[in-house]
Here is the input.
Amino acid sequence: MAKPTARWTERLEHLDRRIIFLVVAVGILVPLVAPLGLPVTVTEPVQAFRDQIDGLPPGSAVLVSADWDPGSRAELLPATVALFHHLFQRDVRVLIISLWPAGPRMVEQALAEVRGAHTKTYGKDYVNLGFKEGAEVVMVSLGDNLPATFPADYYGTPVSTLPVLRGIKSYKDIAMVITLSAGYPGTKEWVQQVQDRYNMPMISACAGVSAPEYYPYYQAGQLKGLIGGLKASAEYETVLERKGFAVAAMDAQALGHYIIIGFIILGNALYLINKWTNLGARKE
Amino acid sequence: MRSEVPMFITLFFGLFFIISAFIVHPAYKSAAQELNNWTLIIISFAYVLGVINVARIHAKKLEERRPGWAYSVMTLFGMLIMIVFGIFVPARLYGGYETGSLFSWLFDNGQVPMQATMFSLLAFFIASAAFRAFRVRSVTASLLAVTAVIVMAGRVSVGELMWSDFPRFVEWIMGDLQTAGQRAVKIGAALGAVATGLKIILGLERSYFSGE
Here is the structure.
């Protein structure tokens, strides 16, 4: 006996995934070529992030931990670039470290985009201290002796010769820790190991996928500000009035999200139609 | 003795670091700092072991001509080039890892785009998986699907075109509703971590040194 032909709704429910890939690719590429100019509303955690940096005392030092790698570049490079612009506008010393092996090169990429716009001097106003293996152990070790934990910067220059680190011994001499986090070790470990133990003001910019995990820390006041994902990075660029890659990429991400939402709705509509049709056929 | 000595070391140092969080005496603090430095040095050696292990596994695969051996050639070649040029070759011959070196060029033009590409592919697979697997089969699955759609809409800019307070509504979902669940997960995980830590320190959990 010939097999009954599947209805068009049943065939559509098993749509070839290459068609889905094509729709997603077109949806992401079109806004990159022809931007839609969608609005960006600044949310409270992002505004708080900005306010915390604006409230730093002149001459104070901040520790930035760039704990991310190329996999999160699209989300965290815009946040890092905007953060460096923001910090370099202010009279603060910036100490940058990384607990991820690829972090220091990503920091260098971000600094390359920022350097031309400011008059800050390497070694005097900011320093890239490079990568140190050890995750939580490094975090705790910084609380006891920062120069001993990072005896030289990324280029091998002894930190004792760098004016930016003069008078900085431990967390006591640092006004705020800013974590740029894409996973482990990242914001969660910084909060657990450093924030409470050293009563350290802390803010975080993280990958979108991690943001839900860090909201409890923001609500509890352990994080004073939070930038979660590309959307929040676009908000940060907007609030700084320095629109960059995040704002430009928001259109593509928005359309990408709506295509996924469209597929969820379509998939469920087909699922319910086929389910009810099959139930009706069985009753007959 | 093979079991007792590692167990005693674990017990001693485990208790030492727990107590160090509560004692502020300079001598004890200084000892804790010294031990932290030891730990950092020991952890750094794990990289050496990692490199040896990767080299051993891929060399064996290559020697036996197992399927995918060509990828092993690329892995070993890439690792060798990065190590040799990053550590041993002088800067005048494009060695080192500063901007302008071969290491930084390969990193910026090889690893960065490749790793970013791998991560970007997620968008395509998520779209395909969302179409096939995100079904409203039950009440809880329906709640999950509806919430996911709302949050996804709110995490991008189009949501506020439909309703100006949409981003704040999504912030409420993220900050209040999901935070309650996250807290429960975190508290559970933290209690589990404390229990596991105590079991290791007290020698009840021994799989880390003997495979028991």
User: Anything to note?
Assistant: Chain A has two domains: 8-37+248-283, 44-242. Chain A has a mean pLDDT of 93. Chain A touches chain B through 68 residues (CB under 8 Å). Residues 8-37+248-283 of chain A form one domain.
